[in-house]
């Protein structure tokens, strides 16, 4: 039978050569290099709220870290260290196959970005996963939500809405073809953090945020922090083949697809603003990083967020994104 300390030692204890002191003591010790700022973020994933309890443990391990890496990407920071707080049901604490798969998914992604696990906690209860991440960025160079300026273009990476479409499929609210299922489930379960993109955006972007709660909701945070307004054109938002097909249908299916595109969560793409004279530079960054970058609108003076439909008329939308305390 696994004890709390068995779980830690068997599945989550690794060397951390870039920390002064890693896991195994009351606290880890890390040192910030001269001329650098720390970027710190924490995310919690709750079974039944952020993921289905029966999700594959390897993909859950990946996503638990990926959502934090996405925060580093939005700041242009280099991720360095993480701590992991893991609340396990009694059954999962004794399920060696689940623990092995979860830790494999977590550490495979950690190794990809040279991130070290330097501590954390385990306890018994309903399945909850909390990860704190610490990154570094050159002092004063971090991308922020507060830098958007009137005249800026609004950009988005990748294909927003695919993860939300996958969730609708899992809830049996829409149908998808097998290729569409594979693509959308990948977006939902194993998102790709845009670390490389975030780093190069430091030189061109005025503001940035990662899309976790929905495109309009997260763009709204930029607008609020920057004291500006925006106009977004629906037909400029990139659409995956799955979403394109749904948008061409009528009635409820089209409305669901628009909701995925504008307000679907779990994208973990980047939304950023940049001056018009950076368009060629951004096109070059898209080629260098291999990430699709699409110009979807404009920052304007004011306080409102307007979305124009395919005919150029204002679109009425019921919600901007996901709210943990309003969702039911």
Helix content: 25-40%
Q: Mean of the pLDDT scores?
A: 91
Backbone CA Rg: 20 Å
Strand content: 15-25%
| Distance from first to last alpha carbon | 37 Å
Number of helices: 11
The order of strands across the largest sheet is 6-8-5-9-7-10
Taking pLDDT < 50 over at least 5 consecutive residues as the criterion, the unreliable ranges are: 322-328
Largest sheet data: 6 strands, mixed
Using the alpha-carbon principal axes, give the shape: globular
User: Could you spell the SSE succession in H and E letters?
Assistant: HEHEHHEEEHHHEHEHHEHEE
Backbone structural class: alpha+beta
Number of strands: 10
Q: How would you describe this protein?
A:
The protein is an alpha+beta fold. The protein is built from eleven helices and ten strands. The protein has a six-stranded mixed sheet, with helices on both faces. The two termini are about 35 Å apart.
